[in-house]
Amino acid sequence: MSSNDYYCALCGSTFSNYHIAEKPHSAGLRQAFRSSQAKKQALNPARDEGEGSVQESPTREVEDDVPVENDEMYTYDPSIISREDAKWVYDLQCLGINTATEVPMKGFVSNISHQSTYGMIEVHDHDDEDIFASDYFSAYHDTTNSGKKVYPFHPNCWDLFKIAFEYYSTGEKPVSAVYWFPSLEAASNLDKALLFDVMSRHGNNQLRRLSGIDYGEPDPPNQARWVARPGEELFLADPTRAREPNKAMIAEKWSSMPSINCRPSTYPPQEIQKIDPFSRLPYELLSMILSELEASSLIGLFSASPHVHRVVSDIPLFWLEAMRSSMPWFFEMQEFLDTFSKDRTIKSGADLDLNRLRLLCLWANHITTPRVGMTGTFMGIANRRRIWGICRQLIDKYTSIISVRRL
């Protein structure tokens, strides 16, 4: 363990799971947590916890009359996340650059490496044959002025980055096998030196994680030492685990959803044109806007705009395609939708299955929204959703540089 912790560049989380308590949290701490959530909700009545609200951790606000054991104040609850579940955070890889090569410089990604002291990382193997088989590098900041600076991340987070890069660089949905077993070809066209440059623009003055990058809500701790706040077990949830249980729960939820008709908008077309600015947009432009929206924004617009409500209701497979485009990180849902498409032939927008798809979209957005106090099977997918958002920020910066270079 180093004198100061450094965190994953792709998720912002720690590289150790020793913060998990030996026994489940006491009733006092759980009561304090519920109290802090209730107070936060009272201050933000328009936002519930299913929409990504940031709830206060009980370590930040504890009632004076609530008995809480001191040794559990800054720990995670083992009944929510076990050390076995969180062992993935110990693994570390890093992105570096070989400054010994001639221009253009060559980037490399290490194999499993190890933390050393004072922000150093011991790298044993990597994909650059020109670098010694074992060497020490500095995390985030070149403390020795030797040019040996690297950006650390968990292997699971790196796999997600490669999948996201493949998805956004090709514009096509990856095949199911790539979701879970990234092949050697996945992200083969990634310029590691350029990615290193992107991270360097956000890491020169930061010893712990990238600066200027939104790590999502809840925001991971960024102190000199990792602070384990009860209710934030999400940060240790493996984003690549529990595929089959999640698929089974999606199928179970689908089968239990009611078959109800979704009533079309009752506004006359003339009135819609007066009150709804979206009615003035060409269909092609509106379709482009809808395809770019996150699921939560899409659902909100569907409810708020009579014109969007009417247009969407006339598109037979709108909600199926909406989930495909707005939830690329929800691999289990993508597989379910593929199966759904093969098993059903839907020809009418009035088909009851389409309305159930809308309900499924609402449910999927809710249960995968990262939030404080999250527990259960979908905690890992919520963390995956958060990490995917971080990866996309870096990919967008990467592709913008590529676009400028091509001018």
UniProtKB/TrEMBL annotation:
Residue ranges of domain F-box in the record: 275-322
Highest taxon of source: Eukaryota
Chain residue ranges for the region called Disordered: 37-65
InterPro entries for the chain: F-box-like_dom_sf (IPR036047), F-box_dom (IPR001810)
Annotated protein name in UniProt: F-box domain-containing protein
